[in-house]
Amino acid sequence: MSNQRRFITAPLVAATAAAGLALSAACGTDNSSTPAPADTSASEKAQQEKKADSSPKSERTDLTRFRLDDRSQAGITDIWVVWTVKNTSGKKSDYRIDWEAVDSHGTRVTNSTEFVTDVQPGQTTTGESPTTLHSAQGVKLNITGFDRTAAY
């Protein structure tokens, strides 16, 4: 009887393991991160800007400035992200800006989301938030998501 249980148990274990592997592959358990987009050259940026000007305005054009502001002094790190948004739509709008900071090796060093609310049509607003960055040297900001929604 003991040998009979082994013959039944082995296929059962193999089937369970195969099902588990199939399930984990289907669920997408890949924890790798997506590398930051490569920086485009100045001429490519100029071509993209021309294309953006010739096509209907996208909501992304409402983000007119997004940069780091290093206010560090006396050995105390104080780095902020600063932005300017101009509402070019005809409706009061809310904005969500997802961003990441990438070092010179392409490694993400921090990321966050900024929220800008109740911007009237034609209005320009600025904002700032502190970051957890230890240095702004060699750090590049990438906008990973931008969304404008109607405010109520």
Q: How many helical stretches?
A: 2
Task: Pick out the low-confidence regions.
Answer: 12-56
Give the percentage of residues in beta strands: 35-45%
Reported for the largest beta sheet, the result is:
3 strands, antiparallel
- The oligomeric status of these chains comes to single chain
Overall spatial form: elongated
Helix content: 25-40%
Q: What's the Cα radius of gyration?
A: 25 Å
| Overall average residue pLDDT | 76
Biggest β-sheet: strands ordered side by side in the sheet: 1-2-5
Global structural class: alpha+beta
Order of helices and strands: HHEEEEEE
**DSSP strand tally:** 6
Distance between the termini: 73 Å
Short description:
The protein is an alpha+beta fold and 152 residues long.
Task: Give an account of the 3D structure.
The structure is a single chain. With about 150 residues, the protein is of the alpha+beta class. The protein is built from 2 helices and 6 strands, in the order H-H-E-E-E-E-E-E. The chain has helices spanning about 1-25, 40-55; strands spanning about 65-70, 80-85, 95-100, 110-120, 125-130, 140-150. The strands form 2 sheets. A 3-stranded antiparallel beta sheet has the order 1-2-5, with no helix packed on it. Strands 4-3-6 form a 3-stranded antiparallel beta sheet, with no helix packed on it. Strand 3 and strand 4 form a beta hairpin. The longest helix is centred in the N-terminal third of the chain and has 26 residues, at about 1-25. The protein is elongated. The protein starts with a helix and ends with a strand.
